[in-house]
């Protein structure tokens, strides 16, 4: 499990060490990952504040007591979802840059494709990460926002590099960078796997749009 989020005032009280025996492990159940999937599903439908621990437990097929074995509170569930999401996106974006070579156009295309596909793999989870940002409290909020800024700066660096090398002709590389990130993130809100285009095809089209927005010179 990821590192514990700071103590939450709504947390379920931990078993007293004076009881003489540790809290029993649930004999079976979906595990931590199953709880997170259930939470994403329920919170996507009812919002963070409209979801209770019992709602998550019922969706996961466990008792509230079993859920508290994995997480101290509903808030910790949300914070874990948000933390894992941004950590995974940063990791994959950095890997895409590392494998993309030195050409700014190729680097931009690689991170656009990564960003789009990431937001299509778990549309409900990524939309939750945007809509429930307001529910995070300090110090979790500042740490999470710092990671989001890191993700944006990865795009900024590519756009600035391309503009400096005259590979990109946009006079507004930072504004283009922000617009590209917003555009790529937004696919989670409208894409349907039952539509005429696959996720890979959408990513390819967004690569083209991003390069056009950057004013990429024809090879």
Polypeptide structure, described:
There is one protein chain. By secondary structure, the protein is an all-alpha fold. Helix content is 64%, strand content 0%. Helix 5 (104-121) runs parallel beside helix 8. The relative contact order is 0.12.
> N- to C-terminal separation?
47 Å
Structural class: mainly alpha
Mean pLDDT: 89
Sequence of secondary-structure elements: HHHHHHHHHH
Strand content: under 5%
- Please report the total strand number as a whole number: 0
Poorly predicted regions: 1-7, 13-27
Q: Characterize the biggest β-sheet.
A: none
- Indicate the percent of residues in helices: 55-70%
List keywords for this structure.
219 residues; mainly alpha; 64% helix; elongated
Give a summary of the structure in a few sentences.
The chain is mainly alpha-helical and 219 residues long.
List the helices and strands and how they pair.
Blueprint: H1 31-46, H2 53-60, H3 64-70, H4 74-98, H5 104-121, H6 123-131, H7 140-164, H8 173-185, H9 187-190, H10 199-214
């Amino acid at each position: 499990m990821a590192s514990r989020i700071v103590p939450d005032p709504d947390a379920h009280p931990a078993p007293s060490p004076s009881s003489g025996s540790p809290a029993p492990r649930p004999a079976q159940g979906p595990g931590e990952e199953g709880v997170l999937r259930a939470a994403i599903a329920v919170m996507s439908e009812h919002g963070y504040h409209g979801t209770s621990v019992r709602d998550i437990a019922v969706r996961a097929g466990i008792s509230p007591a079993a859920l508290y074995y994995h997480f101290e509170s509903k808030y910790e569930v949300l914070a874990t979802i948000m933390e894992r999401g941004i950590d995974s996106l940063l990791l994959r974006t950095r890997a895409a840059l590392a494998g993309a070579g030195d050409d700014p156009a190729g680097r931009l295309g690689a991170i656009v494709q990564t960003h789009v596909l990431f937001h299509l793999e778990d549309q409900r989870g990524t939309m939750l990460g945007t809509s429930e940002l307001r529910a995070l409290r300090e110090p979790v909020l500042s740490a999470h926002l710092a990671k989001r800024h890191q993700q944006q700066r990865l795009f900024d660096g590519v756009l600035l590099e391309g503009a400096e090398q005259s590979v990109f002709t946009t006079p507004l590389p930072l504004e283009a960078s922000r617009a590209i990130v917003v555009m790529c993130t937004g696919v989670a809100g409208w894409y349907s796997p039952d539509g005429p285009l696959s996720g890979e095809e959408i990513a390819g089209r967004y690569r083209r749009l991003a390069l056009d927005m950057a004013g990429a010179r024809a090879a």
